[in-house]
Amino acid sequence: MGRFLMITSTLIALVAAAWAASAGPWAWWVLAAVVLVIVGVAVYDLLQRKHSILRNYPVVGHLRFLLETLRPELQQYFIERNWDGRPFDRDIRSLVYERAKGIHGELAFGTERDVNSLGYEFLIHSTAPVAVPERPPRVQVGGPDCAKPYDMALLNVSAMSFGSLSPNAVRALNRGADLGGFAHDTGEGGISDYHLENGGDLVWEIGAGYFGARTDIGDFDPAQFADQSSRDQVRCVSLKLSQGAKPGIGGVLPAAKVNAEIARTRGVPQGEKCVSPAAHSVFSTPVELIEFIARMRELSGGKPTGFKLCVGSRTDVLAICKAMLEVGTAPDFIIVDGSEGGTGAAPLEYEDHVGTPLTDGLLTVHNALVGTDLRDRIRIGASGKVAAGNDIVKRLIQGADYTNSARAMMMAVGCIQAQICHTGKCPVGVTTQDPKRQRALHVDDKSERVRNYQEATVQQAVEIMASMGVSDPSELSPQQLHRNTGRNEHLSYAELYDWLEPGELLAQPPQSWSRDWAAADAGTFRSV
């Protein structure tokens, strides 16, 4: 490396000298000034103590930091293949962009993926496909204790808060939801003016900070909650227990970011650090959780009320089911968030190593509800890396009734997966509160793109189901989703996983569930 840097320095010096010699006498003064600046930088680099590279390789060592800064863009645009980028590969990003623009999003010459690789999953089509329904199916959310059921679309905007998203991004998402007739989850940051501007249906999410429905000391405020949830635009209320990308931890919004708008929306003091606790203060047991869900539903006037979680232990899920049976009521919906879900910012250890992936989480919740004979009154939403039509169909087979998407919806409004959401320097105005950056996002144009993307993706999911011989999601079965378990073997989800029968846990738990069922207690949450 040292030899490379020395050669580079010499070449730069020779080029500069040649330019000065050919440009005339004045250029020598420019060259002298440049040399003085370089010498100054070199002296500083030699004396500073923070960077070893610069102490050993003054001036030219800065090239290393420049290349490091450009690495994500170089990787994304010039190095990664179409199918192996993360979190979303190039094929999926292109699909979202094209559908958002009204382009069909088709490819030529066949798949680039290794369809024989271990873990590859595929859907089973029918020799006798059925006609595609004229209208995409919707899912009625609202159990027997709900007075105001809501018909949910198969794909909706997942939870993203104002503060994490810019005002224009919130506006575009909500207007797109209104145009397309699907739901927009507010995230736990409260209902902002931007959520209300365009009239799109809202799922109001409440987190452990109770933003928008809290007292001065951070407790839950029933009066504020009742007032906010009574809005006609609020169609459902969701209690956030945990988030896929960072389950089990809260969040902190630094004081400098708590401007007047965010303070008003969240109900917190302006200019003071805003803390979202990891745990709720209004309940500490499964029974208390279910009782609080029932209270929220009553305060909202009977609107569908549920909770979101990233699944931890199966014992906890079963304890919540036992609490439903003991209390005699149940949430109207449960949103299962996978550990592969996105976030504006989280510790690497949490993003990569904590929480249950969406597939296992969905199967756990679905089977727990079936086994306790509760499944017919509770709808399940799936959130976590849902972007294409096959993602929707796959999650429906795994136990979901509908899906939510955050990052794909962000891409529909212009996100380029720069992965600097937490810095406030989003280059396309999606995740920033900087007015100069926000203006890049044109609300009218991007809201149409949100509508286009959702409509085309749901239509593709419906067409896939028709190809599988299915006209309604309720007809899907685990036999229709297969996974490669070896180079020469694949098994269906019916063979890979246990699927409980209605009421089976109440009658005679199977051996694979018996230990967790016995350990589950409606009076306590357990970590194992």
UniProtKB/TrEMBL annotation:
This protein's record includes keyword Signal: yes
InterPro entries in the cross-refs: Aldolase_TIM, GltB, Glu_synthdom, YerD
Keywords in alphabetical order: Membrane, Signal, Transmembrane, Transmembrane helix
Domain of life of the source: Bacteria
GO terms assigned for molecular function: glutamate synthase activity
Protein name: Glutamate synthase domain-containing protein 2
Family named by the database record: Belongs to the glutamate synthase family.
Signal sequence annotation: 1-20
SUPFAM superfamilies (alphabetical): FMN-linked oxidoreductases
Protein's GO biological process: glutamate biosynthetic process
Sequence intervals crossing the membrane: 30-47
Domain Glutamate synthase, first and last residues per copy: 155-470
